[in-house]
Amino acid sequence: MREGAVEANRDDDHEFADLLHSLGLQRNVAKVITYLAVAGESTSREIERKTGLRQPEISIAMRRLHHQNWIREWDVKNTEGKGRPSKVYALSTPIDEIIGFIEEERRKESAEAMENIQKLRDLVSN
Questions:
Q1: How many CB atoms are closer than 10 A to CB 48?
Q2: What pLDDT, on a 0 to 100 scale, did the predictor assign at position 7?
Q3: How many domains does the structure of the chain reveal?
Q4: Which CATH number does the domain housing residue 68 bear?
Q5: Among residues 74, 90, 98, 86, which one has the least CA distance to residue 39?
Q6: 76 lies in a domain?
Q7: What average pLDDT does range 56-62 have in this prediction?
Q8: Is position 62 within any domain?
Q9: I need a labelling partner for 82 at 20 to 30 A (CA). Which of 14, 35, 109, 113 fits?
Q10: Judging by DSSP bridges, how do beta strands 86-91 and 71-76 pair with one another?
Q11: What is the pLDDT of residue 126?
Q12: What is the maximum alpha-carbon separation in the chain?
């Protein structure tokens, strides 16, 4: 995944998010991770606009990302000086480490499944 200018609707970004989703991440979480990996940092409003997600979907995704300690957030005052500050988000874990975490989780699941299959075989042969 490249860092830099954000291109909305890039095919590679869609494929990246789809692959994350196929590996067990919720679709909205996968979209937010993909967007932030490309954008670097972004406000919730920008994430909403660029990913096509609604604000409640982004909030849920952010809670899950916080739970994994994969994201950081901070407040930025509005340029007009009025209203609530905007939240800015960025990945706190590099994307390759997130992929490594997913890989390790899938390995554990696979090993557990193979162990259970062997237990079944042992029960059948007794």
A1: 15
A2: 47
A3: 1
A4: 1.10.10.10
A5: 90
A6: yes
A7: 94
A8: yes
A9: 35
A10: antiparallel
A11: 75
A12: 76
Verdict on whether the full-model pTM lies above 0.85: no
Start-to-end C-alpha separation, the chain: 51
Q: Which amino acid is at 95?
A: I
Which pair of tokens denotes residue 105? 């989780």
Q: Is the pLDDT of residue 81 over 60?
A: yes
Check pLDDT > 80 for residue 10.
Answer: no
What tokens appear for 104 in the block? 């390790």
Looking only at the bridges linking them, the beta strands covering 41-43 and 86-91 are antiparallel
38 part of a folded domain = yes
What is the secondary structure of the chain as a DSSP string? ---SS--TT-HHHHHHHHHHHHTT--HHHHHHHHHHHHHSEEEHHHHHHHH---HHHHHHHHHHHHHTT-EEEEEE--TTS-SSPEEEEEESS-HHHHHHHHHHHHHHHHHHHHHHHHHHHHHHH-
